[in-house]
Specification:
The protein is mostly helical. The chain contains 21 helices and no strands. The chain folds into 2 domains: about 55 residues; about 300 residues, no CATH class.
Length: about 375
């Protein structure tokens, strides 16, 4: 009788739910076949399947996935834990040694604001009736940082949360195809071959002072980022705990396998929470194609803006800074940094990137993370997101 009821449920399942179950299955296959974001994709695919099963109430109020979304995303717990974990893993030494990389991280956020302006102009020029909050959320894809995108999505347009995160990870997969032609068009062969000097020694006190300044700045100097001060503050707190030796003291009491997988566990919970918000009505539409196109534009403009800032630093430093670092301004950690290393290795025709450049690229990635959080705070402050 139970099997009959299941078959009857499948027979009356809406085509949209069947299609979403197919999407979930594809993501599960990709997660097991590829190494790229396998934890997130597996959790995302599993949540989509569980949410769209006949009679499933997991994503309804009171359901397990609903509670995970409510506590983890709506109340900001998962983005906060993600930033804390990233801060523990982060190495800010390249950024401390070369603070000018903060300008690159800031310039890369131009993809967010230029795309927003572009959408608003389309709104006026074509007589469209796009919601400003939706436009702001879509433009945030250009920052490349999932936690700040999730934080902004729940406060600007919760119904688009699943779609914009899916588009963000699609853009991550397209990043090599996107950044390579932009970098070749905006830089010369000579610029791409610049070999940067080794990072100067950074004292322990400098490493502790930097996150302290960042934490205080997030609360006092940047009042416009008040909605996301917790994200920036926890990123700094995590790094301060690491540099002060507190994390090492805790880690001696925790099995290494557990302490090393904290970020992966949070990523898994992220995927489950996001997958529960992916509905057929929102995802299986022409609007998703439009969001994907605008996301590509945002990431492209962000990459180009970062590289142009890198070229400015190249000239200001008399050719000591490789402008390819600008491509790492997108907060796609560490994929954008690896892309910089690949482009530099191709230019020098070597098997691998020069070690100092890769380290500086990772520092630029972290500058992009800071810039992404600040950009989200500006949008939420302007649009009144809570």
């Amino acid at each position: 009788m139970e099997s009959f009821n299941l078959l009857a449920g499948l027979a009356h399942l809406p085509w949209g739910s069947l299609a979403m179950m197919g999407v979930g299955g594809v993501l599960l296959v990709l997660a097991t076949m590829r190494e790229f974001e396998s934890v997130f994709l597996f959790a995302l695919g599993l949540a989509i399947l569980l949410t769209n099963l006949p009679g499933s109430a997991l994503a309804e109020p009171g359901g397990l996935l609903y509670l995970l979304y409510d506590v983890g995303v709506h109340h900001g717990l998962l983005p906060a834990l993600f930033c804390l974990s990233l801060g523990i893993l982060a190495d800010f030494r390249p950024l401390i040694a070369l603070p000018a990389l903060l300008f690159v991280g800031a310039a890369a956020q131009m993809g967010v604001f230029i795309t927003l302006l572009f959408v608003l102009l389309l709104n006026v020029g074509l007589g469209l009736h796009l919601d400003v909050a939706h436009a702001a959320l879509i433009s945030q894809i250009g920052s490349g940082y999932a936690p700040s995108l999730l934080f902004g999505a729940d406060r600007l347009a919760p119904e688009l949360l699943g779609t914009v995160v899916m588009v963000l990870y699609a853009n991550m997969a397209l990043l090599p195809l996107l950044q390579s032609p932009i970098a070749h068009r905006l830089t010369t062969e000579e610029e791409r071959q610049v070999v940067m000097t080794a990072i100067r020694p950074v004292s322990r006190w400098e490493r502790m002072l930097f996150p302290g300044i960042l934490m205080v700045s997030s609360l006092l100097i940047w009042p416009f980022v008040a909605p996301v001060a917790a994200l920036l503050g926890l990123l700094a707190l995590g790094n301060l705990l690491k540099e002060a030796g507190i994390v090492a003291a805790i880690a001696t009491r925790i099995p290494p396998a557990i302490s090393a997988r904290l970020l992966s566990l949070i990523t898994l919970l992220f995927g489950l929470a996001v997958g529960s918000r992916l509905s057929a009505a929102q995802f299986l539409s022409l609007g998703t194609v439009g969001i994907l196109c605008l996301g590509v534009v945002a990431c492209g403009v962000g990459s180009a803006s970062g590289i142009l800032m890198g070229k400015w630093l190249y000239r200001r430093s008399n050719g000591q800074i490789n402008p390819l670092l600008g491509a790492a301004g997108l907060a796609v950690v560490p994929l954008a940094a690896r892309m910089v290393g690949k482009l530099e290795a191709e230019a020098r025709q070597t098997d691998g990137p020069h070690a100092p450049l890769l380290a500086y690229a990772l520092g630029t990635n972290l500058a992009g993370v800071i810039g992404s959080v600040v950009a989200t705070g500006i949008l939420l402050a302007i649009l009144g997101g809570k």
